[in-house]
Amino acid sequence: MQSFISRNKSTWQELEKLMVRARKGRGIKRLKPAELSRLDQLYRRTTVHLAQVLSRSNDDALIQYLNNLTSTTHSIIYISDKSPFLGKVGRFFIEGFPRAIARNWRFHLIALLLFLGGLFLGYFASFHDPLASYMIMPDGEHRTMGATAEQLVEALRSGRDTGQGKKIFFASYLSQHNIKVGLMSLTMGVLAGIPTILLTIYNGMILGAFTATHHSVGIFVEYWAWILPHGVPEISAIILFSGVGLRLGWAVVAPGLLSRRRSIVSASKDAMLTILGGGVLLVLASLVESFLRQSHLPSTERLIFAAISAAFLASYIAAGFYFELTRKEKAD
After folding, report:
1. What is the Cα–Cα distance from 104 to 90, expressed in whole angstroms?
2. CA dist., res. 221 & res. 226, Å (int)
3. In 3-state terms, what secondary structure has residue 216?
4. Exposed (0-12), middle (13-18) or buried (19+): which is 315, by Cβ within 10 Å?
5. Res 36: pLDDT
6. Do 173 and 250 lie in a common domain?
7. pLDDT by residue (tens digit) across 251-277?
8. Residue 120 and residue 236 in one domain
9. Which of 82, 114, 137 is the last residue of a domain?
10. How many CB atoms lie under 10 A from the CB of residue 262?
11. Is the pLDDT assigned to residue 82 strictly greater than 70?
12. Whether the Cβ atoms of residue 209 and residue 127 lie closer than 8 Å to each other
């Protein structure tokens, strides 16, 4: 048995060192991919050693040592993270969500370009042919080409004296509607991404036609001060939903070496993160739309709020690229 211990002692000691590293951090999340692979090998090898010792020896001290070593390793590898719920939520919003954005940046960029393409198409089509704005805008929308400046300004300033209860109800309605649109863009991506592409372009066309309606009668500053405070988080979320929808579509069209099912499952992980993070953005947008937009705040202060929101979102997304790059460097 002494020769058995001498041959395998280095394996147990190496496993112990990895266990110490893991327990000092956040479990196995602290370890690099190569260390995780090594941990798995050492753990399986040590369980075999334990079985051999149990069948061949009565050395209680050795049995107890190997039993403790394997059971502790098992708990770290297979038992879920026991960190507080609020800590997990905090890590998700600080690192998890922006990293998911960074991983899918190409698809988000395509979604942004599609949205902007639709916006310019709707804008110039409405200017060229006012009837186009009627075709683009949803049914029942009266703010189309042909509306007077007085009518549009009145609409921009409406609701400012609405009670708090009605504003809360309005925010709830907006959240449900916006999340529904976002989920539609995301989930329909599994149909090779085509519905997501069309819906993203159409959403841009609506904003373009709406903008053309106001610009055509000389309403510029007040219009952008009205739309940008809630538009920054809302449009950003819609683009993120659309980008992940395109990611799902690509998983169907070009699964690579994986089966289509496994490819979709892989893409769905980031889709779920986007639903959680993008959903929060849409809720925030609905609150801004209900309370800040429908307030007596001057246009200058509204635009400052929008600029700060845009700068924060840009920094937040940039942080995701930093976290993702740092994680890759550690893995290497």
Report:
1. 21
2. 8
3. coil
4. exposed
5. 80
6. yes
7. 999 998 778 988 898 899 899 999 999
8. yes
9. 82
10. 13
11. no
12. no
